Amino acid sequence: xxxxxxxxxxxxxxxxxxxxxxxxxxxxxxxxxxxxxxxxxxxxxxxxxxxxxxxxxxxxxxxxxxxxxxxxxxxxxxxxxxxxxxxxxxxxxxxxxxxxxxxxxxxxxxxxxxxxxxxxxxxxxxxxxxxxxxxxxxxxxxxxxxxxxxxxxxxxxxxxxxxxxxxxxxxxxxxxxxxxxxxxxxxxxxxxxxxxxxxxxxxxxxxxxxxxxxxxxxxxxxxxxxxxxxxxxxxxxxxxxxxxxxxxxxxxxxxxxxxxxxxxxxxxxxxxxxxxxxxxxxxxxxxxxxxxxxxxxxxxxxxxxxxxxxxxxxxxxxxxxxxxxxxxxxxxxxxxxxxxxxxxxxxxxxxxxxxxx
Length: 357
Known about the structure:
Elements: H1 2-14, E1 20-37, E2 49-52, E3 57-59, E4 70-80, E5 83-92, E6 99-109, E7 114-122, E8 154-166, E9 169-182, H2 186-192, E10 197-213, E11 216-231, E12 234-235, E13 244-256, E14 260-270, E15 274-284, E16 289-300, E17 307-321, E18 324-335, E19 346-356
Antiparallel strand pairs: 1-4, 1-19, 2-3, 4-5, 5-6, 6-7, 7-8, 8-9, 9-10, 10-11, 11-12, 11-13, 13-14, 14-15, 15-16, 16-17, 17-18, 18-19
């Protein structure tokens, strides 16, 4: 795998003499700590605020810059006649700043409306999935963890992008298919099971459509897949089977009235039982300063093993520079799970600077 990514870097570099190459980047320098928390003593979890599930960005009572700080670089090369290649590498504090490729794909414009892409991309489950790492692109410190909980967030495959309109509505769409095989999934291995866990999502097939007009934007999405898992080398079993099928549904609706805005997202995963998440947020722009509030919730059905937690957050964003924003946010998490407590109750303060370049 590392050889493949190294070859991609060499290829992108060698293209500079034959193509229009663009290099851009983003970075976040964030810090914070838990102000108060219960932890989960029965599992040896100290007071913890789990800010980001997939990469296990966790704050404790010790002040730290490490959990959410990151830097990313994106290289894209236009080869002419509709063909381009893109690579994005991200180094995260939560991974000891080991750089990994998040994107590595080629694109070809079929016509004015359709583009086909193939390679490694971010799985477009959620509204903020495609630019999740670019903190400058959204108002909060991070998209709410109760919504963005999934252990798989990339895939390798093919997708078709559409850009057009329906009447007075602008429309974009994405149809995709592929798989992801993570030999040592960080969330499952390091946090939930604390054993080496291989997570496989195969036969992924999904679609996304976004409609926008004036002050309103609506996004709908659906995906289905087959899940297989190996914990410490042993296959997980569900009702006597070594695989299970999942279906994901999502709806996001955002209203922007100039200074005042409302953001929302509702998701359901049918995986032998319903797992529901939602987020509601609102804010007001006072020039370069934007205070906001946010509430998110996670609820999973079960027979006595229900997982349920929610987060209330309040914060402010200050765009002190055309390419940089300072943010500070207070989060209060209530973990109401039974036997499946994630990280317990917590109150945390985080702040940082997001930049693009």
